Amino acid sequence: MKQTFTAVLFLFTFWFTYSAQAQNSSYDLVVYGGTSGGVAAAIQISRMGKSVLLIEPSNHLGGLTTGGLGATDIGNKNVIGGISKEFYQNVKAYYDDPEKWKYEDRSDYLSRPDQTRSNEGEDAMWTFEPSVAMKVYEKMLADEDIKVIIGKRLNRESGVKSKNNKITSITMESGETYTGKMFMDATYEGDLMAASGVSYTTGREANSQYGETLNGVQANFYNLTLKGNVSRNAIHHNFVPGVDPYVVKGDPSSGLLPFIIEGGPGLDGTADKGIQAYCYRMTLTNEPENRIPFEKPAKYNELEYELLFRNYEAANGPIEKMYHYGDPLVPWINTPMPNKKTDTNNQKGFSTDFIGQNFDYPEASYAEREAFSKKQLEYQQGLMWTLAYHPRIPKKVRDVVSQWGMPKDEFTDRNGWTPQLYVREARRMVSDYVVTQADCEGLVPQVEDGVGMGSYGMDSHMVQRYVDHNGYVQNEGNFEARGLSAYPISYRSIVPKKGEKENLLVPVCISATHVAFGSARMEPVFMVLGQSAATAASLAIDHQVAVQDLDYDLLVEVLLKDNQILEYAK
Which pTM does this prediction carry? Predict the structure, then answer.
């Protein structure tokens, strides 16, 4: 289908609709949230012949897929189908053109020993530059009849209007109102879901609530999963032994260093309001022609990095032997992307994750979220400058990090820094089916209404930083546990409880525990669930039923026709 909306040049050369006809118009589906899941949903329902409005509250479309997470966390590639697989196939088609390789050859990149996600001979490519992901999404959206509005935030206080248990319209802070037959919340935060009155939760459940072993506080280094496997909790991304937590070493009266909580972490397995730490996924380059050196932030506070200095200073012997996991020197996972760029993520005890600082983010106001995002950015910019240039960082570390910097040709209006905060976890819907650790490990009867498959291991970044019984600093909250090679995600987990909103679908903040969400929260899965949710919305319109009452046999027929993968056999 040809693009029909009014073209307005906005960020990253994307042509967005912002016409007078968009305001106060009615659509078959209104998607709030231009994440990967929202984009896939808009494409799918357009292909099914329905009208759709895609609203992104920020000025960045595509979420983390276009925001720096180019090292796709997949799990099992064989269960990625439909529009999600199509996206990665389009990425490969883009890079098949030799002219798209400016700083290195495709064959050299794909043959690198540290390149494990994308390989020659595959029909898709799973690693990419942020700007390329944006171009691919631009083309996929432009091929459909989709109206897109950028930079319009929901009035979370009074902007959701309902009648007869259905949402009738949503109003933005700036006053525009949009009506629809169906609505979808595809945000990472779940703002529309929460504002509509749907049941949801935040934080960590107690293990006792759903019969799990990895939920709640996870301070113990070893834990048994439901399958009896040992999970090595809080060990991979923690401090070396003996890091002093006090402003003046050995003097508790001097106070704790920044970002350490008062008191202990809590009892193992008990519930709290903690969520996985956030960060910005950095795109870095060591190509001199394209590199912006790390800069010292104007509000740099050296005390915020004292734990980093002490972590290196506490090493007993060569710092290369400090860690048995990942990079031996630098606290990052520096995954190579095309054209001598990276997707750089958190690693070790003190890194890009802003541990323990985001607990209030899910329910925070827009202004409070912006303040947090700014603080996260300043913290991370200060971290990179520190690692590259501060004299208390070992020289061999500085020699490595100072070769890197932000790319001149990515996020050009922000000196190479992505605008997309990595919201790993915020609100989670509580519906008639809650995905739990047992689903991931295959210890419950397999659901019979699957609309996509998860396959990544159960995974949580650190949640908080505390002083242990020895008087040293520790991180708490990490777990890394394997489950099934693939497990189905229930349709009931992407729609509200029966009796709640009848025309709302939630493919991102799905109904799952903290543990299971740590497995399901991957960008390819959000795309899969976004497509399935849009399919359900279209069929619910056609058959004039609540989304909770949709005949699954009708849904699965269309999903399979559209190349969704709902079952996996080894």
Answer: 0.94
